[in-house]
Amino acid sequence: MMQYADEEANAPYGVAYKKEKKLFLLPPSGERVNSWNSECLTLQSGEFADYLANNAGLRLCSDKPREIIENCRGGKDALQWLETTVSDLMGARRKYFALHFPEDYDVLDRKRSILAGGGKMIVKGVLSRAGVDGHRVFSYPRESGRRCLVDDLVRQTIENAGCTGMGFSEVSVSD
Predict the structure, then answer these.
(1) Strand 2-4 relative to strand 15-17, pairing
(2) By CB atoms within 10 Å of each CB, which of 8, 42, 70, 168 scores lowest?
(3) Residue 116 neighbours by CB under 8 Å, 6+ apart
């Protein structure tokens, strides 16, 4: 799973904030975004990162990880990239892309995953090997947060490219 870097590795990087307090700017995965007003967020106390933490519920990628993900994506992966601008306190602006998953896939082993809220909230997901076949970049079904699942090839390519602001953790896969 691709996530923000741990606190120590992420120390030099800032967090982008939006002015309004709406929790998520995008719908959960499985819903295509047909209309997008480019958001402008403000970077607080730190440097720009390739995978930028934020308070808007967005998976913000610079061009570098976006190009890697596009080049490595699986044949079954549906992705949307929604352009966003982030400005620092000195006025420097950078273009980012919010990664969104407009389609959901049956990738969970529901018998082995830990679910809550009548099976609607994933506490600990276990992936089904058959369900992830043909996918390299995806999310859990109806994911509203920032979780982004990538296979080992995508992870290695991102790490080899020296992308900043992100870390990875393993997700269990059942046979």
Answers:
(1) unpaired
(2) 8
(3) 123
